[in-house]
Structures are given as C-alpha cells and as structure tokens.
Amino acid sequence: MKRSQELIQEESHYFAPAGRIPYYPLVIDHAHGSTLTDVDGNEYLDLLTSASALNVGHTPEPIVNAIIAQVKKMIHYTPAYMYHEPLVHLAKKMCEITPGDFEKRVIFGLTGSDANDALIKFARGYTGRPYIISFVNAYHGSTYGSISMSAISQNMRRKIGPLLPGFYHIPFPDSYRGMYGSAEPNTVEEYLAPLKEMLATYVPPEEVAAVVIETLQGDGGLLQPVDGYFEALQQLCKEHGILFCVDDTQQGLGRTGTWCSLEHWHLDPDLVVYGKSLAAGLPLSALVGRKEIMESLDRPAHIFTTGANPVCCAAALATLQYMEDNDLLAESTRKGKIAHDRMEHWRERFDCVGDVRGLGLSLGVDIVADKKAKTKDPHAALVICNRAYEKGVVMIAFAGSVLRFQPPLTITDEELNKALDVIEETLTEWQDGRLADYEVDGQGW
C-alpha cells in the first residue's frame, strides 16, 4: 500500500469529516514555488495555492528567513495586553495599501472568518444599526457570524441553527447567468430591484448597517459582476448612510492584480477584510477601515490571545515586501492575461466550456452541458479535474461546475503554459468521449 493511502486510512479514525471537502488522495510532504510533492514522491503543479492562501507560492526564501528570525527572537506574546514591533510596522503597511484618501485603522485576527465577524461588529457598533446585507452564494467563513453572512451551502447551516439574526441576502449581479434560473444576465437596475424592494417594504434602510460584497464571488464560482452595478450599489448605500464593505479574503493582496480588488472599480470601501494569503500561509487576518468606524468600539470588543502573533506579522511584512520586490501585482495581471487569452480559445473550441471569467490570476472556467441553456455540468467538471490530477496538475471544481484557476502569482511562464497545456489536453479528451468511465462520486462541495 502507498504511504499516502496508509496515512489517509489512519486519519479517517481520528479526523472529523466536517473539516474537509474531499477531492484527491493527495498527502503533501513538501512544497516549493508552484510544485507540490506528495509522500510517495509524485510532483504536481499547484493551481489551487491552498485555496488562494499562498499567493507568493510555497516557501519563498525571504519569507522563510523572516519567520525563522522572528521565531528565534520570540514566538508569541499576546497583543491583547502588550506590544511588539512587527505589529506596529504591519498595521502601518495595511493602512497604506488599502484604498481610500482618508485616515484608517486596522485590527488583526487569525482567519478571514473572524475578520468578517469583526466587520459585523464594527459596522453595527459604528452605525447603531442591526442589519447586514450580503449576497446569495456568498461565502464569508465558518464562524457563526461569517456563516450567518454567507449563503452558499446548506451543509454549512444544517443542524447548527439558529444562526445569528439580522442578515439578508440579495442576488449577485452575475454577468453570465441571470436571476432565478434565467440563462441571460440581468441589467443593473434589474439586479438592484430586489434590494430596493427590500428597503421599501420590510427592511428599513435606516436600520441597515452595511452591505458586504465580494468583487468576484469566489466560492460562488468566481462570478463577475455586470458593468456599473457596484457603482450604483455604492451610491445607493451613500443615500441611506449604509456602509459599503468588501470581503477581500480571497481576491485581495494581488490575486486580481491589485492590493484591494475593489480598486478595479475605482471605489473606496468603508471596511475591507483581508485574510488567506496575508502571511504566506500562517494564520493572520485583518480588517481595515475608516478611522471613525474602527474607533467606534471600546476595548476589548475584538481581541484574540494569539491574534497578530509576531511570527505571523513578520511573515506578513516579508510577504508584502516580497510582492513589491518581485512586482507581483503586475505579474498577476500579465500572467492572468496569458491564461485568460488562452482560455478564450477554449470557449470557442470546446462544447463544454460555457464561460471564462475573472481578473488577474483569479480565473474560473464554467463547464456546461448545454451552451445555450448554460446548464451546469458538475460531473464533467470533476472528471476534468481528476484527469488533470492524474497528469500532475492540482485544481478543483466548485460552485457545481467551475474550474478554479488560482496558481501562485510567482508561477513561471513555463509552468503556466504547462498547466494550460494539461487542461487543454484534458478538455480534448472529454470532448472526444475518452473520459466516459470516470467515477467521481462524493467529491466536491
């Protein structure tokens, strides 16, 4: 028996199934750059980057050195009571890279989930209003607050209710499919209509604290909004004194080619959530916002014993410096264009490729059974991912039918083209009917 199979069998006796979404029997031993190596010595190109938590790739030397140097000095002392230098420098840097020509403040946590909980707290605390509006198919995390703000998976909600009160969800302005099962996208006004009706009938706008967006709806399928929607939504928020907030846990920090993904729309958010890739894989999150909002709560309204750990802060500072030194924002844009241009040919060539969308190196390929009806094909998407895995490329399908293409921003052009070659070969095999015998039951969301 392979070492990977032995370990997976052993783990099944101890690890609770709620903690993983199953895809492949991949037990990773080590990883460098864009390459994963399993415990049996097999190598894979990584197009998932630990759910976009490793934008700078695996084990970049300057970041590893910064972590080691900080560990040798001090592993932890809680910022809940005391101070340390890496936090000071990181707090300044986070305020500098977040858009908005106004004074900002930041607070740190451990993961995007708790940063979204912070957003809920500060939005309610500052406005004195109870309600939060987010989107259908939004994913904001796994704590009670972030689950309550999410609307993507029944399995996240079953058996744990009641969830937190005060959350409402509206349709995401999908530029590929429309609302309520329509194959055609709606207009900006049509997408805004459910929110306007809500505010006019059963949710008083003066009681809404915040609207929270994902610029690309990540786990919802990397959905891209129709042009003009976010601008109109922010204007509506301003009219009613509602905070306009962005959860950039997945799309921020260079993933789309900017520090904050809302920069693509030239809009300034009131609050921004960062997480995942902030500390190159170590647990760290941040909420950055307008000074007056972030100073609206009294101590100790949002503290964690191990939040803003000095090792994590040192890793984050080294990560942001590494991104600047290697021009990774521009590289994300450049490499994303290479991939997107190649994928556009797939839409023309393959019957199963219905849509290609995204920004920078955050791209989704929507696999369909019928191009005109835009019918999702989850089976085909999982088969394509499994076949690519057999060929040494790791990616997943989510949101029913979408191939998630989020490699490290540091991926080389040669590796990028190799990965695209493998996916293209696999799509050809599917088109030609050579993958009909694949079994993929039990995989995915």
From TrEMBL:
Which keywords fit this entry according to its UniProt record? Answer: Aminotransferase, Pyridoxal phosphate, Transferase
Top EC class per UniProt? transferase
GO MF term set = 4-aminobutyrate:2-oxoglutarate transaminase activity; identical protein binding; pyridoxal phosphate binding
Pfam family, any one? Aminotran_3
Identify the cofactor(s): pyridoxal 5'-phosphate
| SUPFAM superfamilies per UniProt | PLP-dependent transferases (SSF53383)
Q: EC no.?
A: 2.6.1.19
Q: Which family does it belong to?
A: Belongs to the class-III pyridoxal-phosphate-dependent aminotransferase family.
UniProt cross-references to PANTHER family, sorted A to Z? AMINOTRANSFERASE CLASS III (PTHR11986), LEUCINE_METHIONINE RACEMASE (PTHR11986:SF58)
Give the protein's recorded name.
4-aminobutyrate aminotransferase
